[in-house]
Fold each of these.
Amino acid sequence: MGKTATSISSTSSSTSSSSSHPARKRKLPKTKASESSSDTSAAKRRRSSSKGKGAAKRSKSKSRKRRSKSRRRSKSARRSPIRPVWGRGSERGSERGSGISRVRGSERGSEPKLPSYALAHISQAALDAYQAPTEEPRCKTGLVLLGDLCQGPKVARWTYILKDEARRCFAGYLKSPFSKEQCFQFYKTAYDGTSWKRPRDMPRGTAWMVAKGCTCSYRYGGHEMEPEEYPPWMLEIMRAAMPFFGLEQAAEWPNSCNLNLYDTGGSSVAWHADDEALFNGKFQDARILSLSLGVQRTFELRPNFQSDSKASEWMNLGDGDLCTMEGMAQKHYEHRVPPSNVEGPRINLTWRWTVRHTPRCPARRMQPD
């Protein structure tokens, strides 16, 4: 009995103690899955902390770069010798309150040309009030128009649609002096005898020919045209056409020709100026001669400081018509052949004088210093 009571009391005491103090959970041994999960969480914490540090470093480096760029821009702005040609709200200009300011310089020709994106935000009235730089009159420079060289009782008169004496810019045309049979033969010979190049983003065919002894390539509009020596048929066409420009002797003829093939009315040439370094047309008088063969197309001109795309002068050039641009027209004017609804092809031969040959061209070594 005593033992039984003792056991009962011990049991009750253990029960009461267990009820007052709940039993602690036993720690189970770690399995591989739990170890891998703990390792993964630790790795994630390390990566997140490293990412945070890297992002902070990158943001600091970016801020440093921005500050250095702003410093460089401010320094270049302070050091830049170029001043804008135009300025809104300025009282200095050709007319007070016109909103146009002029650059002061030793030479008017040194003024930078206004870019096209800036022209779009300037009113036409302000552009009309602007006095573009003028050139010396042709009586001082000795410029003689080609239309004046071929005067005679049996020679047709040239018509000059552009006579800008202040800027020494001229453009004119002569209606076809050739027969229809001659024009057809010229077109067929030029079409069949030319290796037409068709660049991907150029809406026409083109070719570049030069006189014997010249190897200058022609670069324009992001394209480079390799030269081809004048073939015999080109000399025949020049022999027939050059006298109507007043150039009787072969030594006076142009030494380069750019040929363009307009397959349809959609083939065109955008606004541009032939101011490449080969021809030096921005710094001296330059003559450009052309012969049109095929369907009639419109040839347009405009001042290069004009904001809209409208032409100020134009001429309709048909089969066999001759055209010329002279003086400083490539400096102060632009020209184009816009798209048209006409059907049929057209070939244009544009002759020019290359005066600044490339360093590797043999013709450059023959030029006087």
Amino acid sequence: MYAIVEIAGKQFKVTKDLYIYTPKMDQEAGSSVSFDKILLLQNDQDIQVGDPTVAGAKIEGKVIEHVKGDKIIVFKRKRRKGYKTKQGHRQGYTKVLIQNILR
């Protein structure tokens, strides 16, 4: 059984007991979350496609931790002007364990 769910504008293919990294959420580590924007649900040869979402479907998960992604270097330079600047950026993510997919 798997589902395609939309979380914060991004789509994820999830199954039970799967860890996913979503854009940072406001929930604390250890709290439970539920997602109801299910776009597609597959269950034992039966596929339900939402219009735009599958009615009555829900995914339950648990927030494991908040992490930061790899560092990205932003470097700007203008030739012959002596202008250069260097910045770093690390995107915040939330690690979520998918516990259950409900119809």
Amino acid sequence: MTKFSLLDHESVPKHEIISEGELKSVLSKYLIEKEQLPKIKVQDPVSKEIGAVVGDVVRITRKSQTAGEADYYRLVIE
């Protein structure tokens, strides 16, 4: 039996953990603190699949009719 990957499903946008350098850039761009980012739980199936841990920030790249692609950021919480 093969394991199904959530990330391979067409309805699931691309998720990836960002580096500290990219995080600093995002926070300064939006003039916010890390804790002000929207949240995603560490128990979320996609969080588990990408190996996210509490405190990581995940970039979600979604298709957009107006922008082509749009990035969203989520702070991983317990």
